[in-house]
Amino acid sequence: MSDVAQSMPTVLTVDDSITIQQLVKQTLEPDYRVIVTGNVVGALSVIYREPIAVLLLDVLMPEVDGLEFCRTLRRLPQFQTLPVIMITSKDSPFDRIQGRLAGATEYLTKPFEPDQLRQMVGKFVQ
């Protein structure tokens, strides 16, 4: 990995959709180092060895969903302040409340505009 990539803030996106993974990479890669994984197990292996600036997390995933993963992260002291942006197609007020209760910092619904995502991530990375 180049020194330039190492110095860029890292965004981890956890989504089982290859399309969403690619969209996030295309949207953020000019300004951020983007790591993608399709499940929570992959996310855990990354999050413990890489300094993550922002976590983008899908709600609906096989095995462990994003809400449960977010709740688990919030119980660990080193991840209590990590910005977590839920990116999901679930858009009811109840879904948004569930996201907040699980510990999500922000909530973005699919389909999203690339500018929305850049702006939201930018709020947490100086």
Description:
It is a single chain. The chain has 126 residues and is of the alpha/beta class. It has one domain (3-121): Rossmann fold (3-Layer(aba) Sandwich), CATH 3.40.50.2300. 41% of the residues lie in helices and 18% in strands. It is built from six helices and five strands, in the order αβαβαβαβαβα. It has helices at residues 3-7, 18-28, 40-47, 66-74, 93-102, 114-122, and strands spanning 10-14, 33-37, 54-57, 84-88, 106-109. It has a five-stranded parallel sheet, sandwiched between helices. Strand 3 (54-57), helix 4 (66-74) and strand 4 (84-88) form a beta-alpha-beta unit. Helix 2 (18-28) crosses helix 6 (114-122) and helix 4 (66-74) runs parallel beside helix 5 (93-102). The longest helix is centred in the N-terminal third of the chain and has 11 residues, at 18-28. The relative contact order is 0.17.
Named at the architecture level, the CATH assignment is 3-Layer(aba) Sandwich
Regions with pLDDT < 50 over 5+ consecutive residues? none
CATH-assigned fold name: Rossmann fold
Radius of gyration: 13 Å
Task: State the shape.
Answer: globular
Number of helices: 6
Find the count of extended strands (DSSP E, 2+ residues). Answer: 5
H and E string? HEHEHEHEHEH
Structural class: alpha/beta
Note the gap between the termini. 22 Å
Sheet-strand content, in percent, reads 15-25%
Number of domains: 1
Summarize the biggest pleated sheet: 5 strands, parallel
| CATH C-level category | Alpha Beta
